[in-house]
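Forum: Protein Structure Q&A
Topic: Joint prediction for protein chains with partners

I've read a bunch of threads here and the consensus seems to be that you should model interacting components together rather than docking separate models afterwards. I'd like to see that in practice. Below is the full input, 225 residues plus whatever partners are listed. Could one of the regulars post the assembled result?
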Amino acid sequence: QKEVEQDPGPLSVPEGAIVSLNCTYSNSAFQYFMWYRQYSRKGPELLMYTYSSGNKEDGRFTAQVDKSSKYISLFIRDSQPSDSATYLCAMSSLSGGSYIPTFGRGTSLIVHP
Amino acid sequence: DAGITQSPRHKVTETGTPVTLRCHQTENHRYMYWYRQDPGHGLRLIHYSYGVKDTDKGEVSDGYSVSRSKTEDFLLTLESATSSQTSVYFCATSTGVDQPQHFGDGTRLSIL
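Posted by a regular:
Agreed with the consensus. Here's the joint model:
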C-alpha cells in the first residue's frame, strides 16, 4: 500500500460544477498538506498549503484536512475549462530533520464547456 | 514560478553517455530538490540540497549524482545514462525545511 493514495481519474465535469478531489494516506505523522495543479508539459504549481485539520479557503478553492480519517480534499467551486489539469496532493512530516513531501500520483480533471 | 529555470528543456541521448541537467533559481532559496516524474509513479525525489555543498539522497538516487557550488545552481548528473532513466525531471526550491516547494517546468529526457 502506498503512503498516499489518489484516484488517477480522469474526472470529467461540466463547467460550473463543484469538483471534489481526494487523497487518503496511511502515515499518521503527516503534518503538512499541499495541493498542486499541473498543466500538461508544465511543472506543478502550488495551490494550497495547510498545517492543521479543518478547512482553508482561497478564492474558488477550499482545502479540507481530516486527520482522524487520514483524508484530505480539494474543492473547486464554479469550475472552469481552465481548471482542466492534473491535481497532485502532497503531505509531509519531520523525518531525519527534513519535511520531504510524499506526493500522490495525481488526479486528471477535465472541465468541459 | 519562484524564478526557476531548467536547462535543457528537452534532450535525447544514447545509453552510456553522461548527461547533466541544470537548475537555476533567482529567489535565493536555501533548499533545492531534483525529482523525476513517471506515469504510475508520480513525483519521486532523487536528491536534495540544504545549502551550498550540502546534499542528501532521496528515494531513487541510484545512478544519479548532484552538485551545488552556488546557492542559485543545482546540477543533476547521470554518469552513464540508461533507458530506465528516461523521464521528466523537475527541479524545486523552498525557503525552509518546512515550507512548500515551488517547481520549474521540467526537462524531458529520452535515452535511446
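The longest strand of chain A covers residues 85-92.
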